[in-house]
Amino acid sequence: MVTPTPSAAPTPPAAPTPPASGITPVEEELLRLAGSVPDPELPMVSLAELGVMRGLRLLGPGRVEVELTPTYTGCPALESMATDIERVLHDHGVPEVAVRTVLSPPWTTDAISAEGRRKLAESGIAPPAPRGAAAGGPVPVALAVRCPHCGSTETELLSRFSSTACKALRRCTACGEPFDHFKEL
Amino acid sequence: MTAALALGDDALVLSHRLGEWAGHAPVLEEEVALANIALDLLGQARVLLSLAGDEDELAYLREERAFRNVQLVEQPNGDFAQTIARQLYFSTYQELLYERLARGTGPFAPLAAKAVKEVAYHRDHAEQWTLRLGDGTEESHERMRRGLDALWRFTGELFEPVEGCEVEWHTLHDAWLTRISSVLERATLTVPEGPRRGGWAAGAGRQGLHTEPFGRMLAEMQHLHRSHPGATW
């Protein structure tokens, strides 16, 4: 267990997040900056595209609180996400940045934006299929996962777990290439 | 907070046991799978232990008697089949428990709602292997049977009520038994017989009484932190 930076330690959810409509233009700009940070494991997508940014509040002059949600509870990238966000905001003149982890509502792969999905596929990672609002529990591995290299749907599961918690390993039977599949969650 | 310790210690201890497979798993895919499951459990443990106090102090500086995990999760890995048996028993229980906690309004609801999706995947992994080993060769069937039998007596403790968890434990038990029976039947195995309660050996983990291998596991898990307090990298 890595000793977490104080700002990245998982904390129980406290006060409910204020509605997004209450966000000021400055907060919006800072949220855009924080959200532009690339994911440490999947640097082709930003944190905003991954859908893990939950909010940002200006608490006072030079004091900002950012809310971040993990993809998986044990995602080890969470701490570097928090550090990267702090650095970007420091560089833009915010001296005091607190990054808070929120769990509720749980992140799902449906939070990944269309642009994020496109970038994943472009980098050879098959994006997750939409789960839909009615889905409950995990969706079995989708029957047809498209090969990000040749586009064939003739692909097979090699391993249910892969290089990170969020991916499974598949192989395309048409072109023979193995590829990662971002699992539906 | 007793319940946070009980659930957090379950996740932490099982995470460590699964981590022991690193470098030893029969195939690379399973090495990755067990490490991924361990990582999910570690994440859950961190959130739960943080509800009870300082996560690092709780994980690395408590003595054996202060741990509140069930004895099932501290049992040694055994062969791969025995690890799968432990996974089947525990992940089935954990998924049913988290489903119920997620529906509630207690302090564990946010974590349970998030983690239940991860645990469902762990349970599915254990079921697939139970089917493959049980309905595989004579050797794999026999080993799976032995693993299930060896751990059966530790399963009664899973359903001892934990103070602070608003859960109907007897219906949780019934749902667990139904699901386990169905998987074992499909795997051409039978539900083990024998006592699951009574006797000091099986079922006092929640009171801080642990089996002999747990002390050795803790020694390894805590050694680095105790030797180099405050170490970071």
UniProtKB/TrEMBL annotation, chain B:
Superkingdom assignment: Bacteria
The keyword Metal-binding is assigned to this record: no
Known EC number(s)?
A: 1.14.13.149
Q: What class does this enzyme belong to in the EC scheme?
A: oxidoreductase
Q: Does the keyword Hydrolase apply?
A: no
Report the Pfam families cross-referenced here.
PaaA_PaaC (PF05138)
Task: Keywords in alphabetical order, please.
Answer: Oxidoreductase
Query: GO: which molecular function terms?
Result: phenylacetyl-CoA 1,2-epoxidase activity
In terms of NCBIfam families, this protein maps to: PA_CoA_Oxy3
Q: What is this protein called?
A: Phenylacetate-CoA oxygenase subunit PaaC
Annotated organism of origin: Streptomyces niphimycinicus
Please name the gene that encodes this protein: paaC
